[in-house]
């Protein structure tokens, strides 16, 4: 019998297995896909010019110590997010304006003041400790900012934050959930920043998935069972049996479950999870968080003085960033097609999705002729992925964050739950997945290595 069976080989599952193995325990990871990395997936470009990051891409060296330690350990080459140039704001399909990247968009003076007030409010809230109150958890983010006096255009900006941060509309998440997310992730401004103070500072030249592959080497490929979707988890009290769809059976003393909580309902648990755990996890949702990556032969937007960044109220692209890696002659714009616009876009056939994206890029970048001549295009819809069902990470139903805080993520019998959603640091990010995997495995190690009571 194994000491630990880990379900899922995303960052949290891999880190949990590595931590348990390094503590001397025997481990097996059972993973549904035929690859490791979960929502980190770096796909080689046909042109040979590096990789397209279909999932997570950005990291920070000083704020995210776990992920950065792997960059050093595996000697990975990184690239700094380019900040120079003009950014673009698209207010409607046919209205756009340019502004220096990193500044408040040029709205009217009253709107600018209002935006800065709302931004400063969230920054101040995000620096407070603890869980926000149940009262704040029982209102939507949209209701909350309207009660703060947000002007219509600024309430739409808050909606844009919710779309680009969580793949949801501001009417679909609670104000407390939004604030708690900012509290766990350094601060509101750290989440939004593209420089050394924030989450979008650095990227990988050869793909973020290199970290997953590096951890998998440490865990040992022979201990990782790919293409084995788990169906059933039976907790016998003395040990756990894990059964896959292709009828592989694993026996272990403990099980570490690293699949996002929204998907627990797809598993057969015996005995069933406690009703409070089912209520909170069945209530979580995964956002529409999609990427369309458009690769070009040359970075034409840079020569026109653009940063590559644009944000849009009209969609379907809600936000776009330059994701070039000059060292590889890789020039790309990564478009986030998120929230409600992403939900609608994801239902279109591939050619219509691409046409809609290129048409919007053309409007944003002054009808630059090169827009319509990409050399490669990727679009990745995480809601369509059977083993992810959306991204970034599960978001609680309104009121559930505070109502179920005493059970959410807590072990049940011999089952430990990990995943970026449970992290106290950089929840929703790679760093949070590593944090949670490490903490979860440490708890399992402590339980298994505790001297048993002698009667
Ligand atoms: C488009 C996008 C952009 C992002 N951008 C960033 C970014 O810039 N920076 C950043 O830090 N983070 C980013 N993230 C978030 C980051 O990818 C995640 O926070 C992190 O990878 C989550 O890791 P995890 O281990 O918690 O979950 P997952 O990666 O979801 O791992 C869960 C694993 O469980 C497996 N699984 C599912 N069902 C089963 C089953 N039945 N049996 C066995 N295995 C199963 C899955 O295949 C998967 O491997 C982004 C994500 C997306 C999708």
Fraction of helical residues = 25-40%
> What separation lies between the terminal Cα atoms?
25 Å
Q: What share of the residues does DSSP label as strand, in percent?
A: 15-25%
| Beta-strand segment tally | 21
Mean pLDDT: 97
Give the structural class.
alpha/beta
Q: Assign the CATH architecture of the largest domain.
A: 3-Layer(bba) Sandwich
> CATH homologous superfamily of the largest domain?
FAD/NAD(P)-binding domain
| Ligands bound, unique | flavin-adenine dinucleotide
Radius of gyration: 22 Å
Estimate the global geometry from the Cα principal axes: globular
Number of structural domains:
3
Largest sheet: 8 strands, mixed
Note the total helix count. 15
The CATH C-level class name of the largest domain: Alpha Beta
Instruction: Please mark out the parts with pLDDT under 50 across 5 or more consecutive residues, or reply none.
Output: none
